[in-house]
User: Fold this.
Amino acid sequence: MGRRLAWRYPRQFGVALLVAVGGCAVAPEKAPVAPAAQLTDLGRYLPLQNNTVFSYETYIEDTNEHGVAVFEISRPRPELAELRVAGQVRRRYYFEANGVRSAQGGYLLKSPLAAASTWQGDDGTVTVTGVNLSIDVPAGKFSGCVQTMEVAKLPGATRKTTTVFCPGIGITVLQIEAEQDGTSLLQRLSLKSFGPRFTGL
Assistant:
């Protein structure tokens, strides 16, 4: 069993993870344009249910480090989901009629979820690179999943972020491949467990 570690990245790559555990400030809220009730198919692939806890196995290739990252979901309002690490909000997502938008303005998911569909993410163009996929992670084997890739061109660097969304669960895999000045980096999160937060007896 690997030691528990904070999901980190070398700053020279400018890698922005789904949850910036390094302690970046949360962007101010922007008013959503539509209530979550209008979101149907996308909500299956990113339910983000209140008081759900996700545990991910983490891997950093350059140092061969293995660990665990734990995220908790809260839903202050039906159209808003917050991702927390150690009780602190790290990301906010808004459920709109046509997609799930981050507080930074880009979309994590957007209709239609069809092969080769594209939209604007936080840092680059997101493309649907696979549909109806099966994937095997520590939490189990899941099917009917959708895979996306965001390609970002940063100052002196490039980054590819591959994310796999599975129905009824959400993100099962998040992998980042970055390159700068001939140096490459790979980081990966794989779903280990998920379920309701334990609130005691």
In short: The chain has a mean pLDDT of 82. The radius of gyration is 16 Å. The helical segments are 41-45.
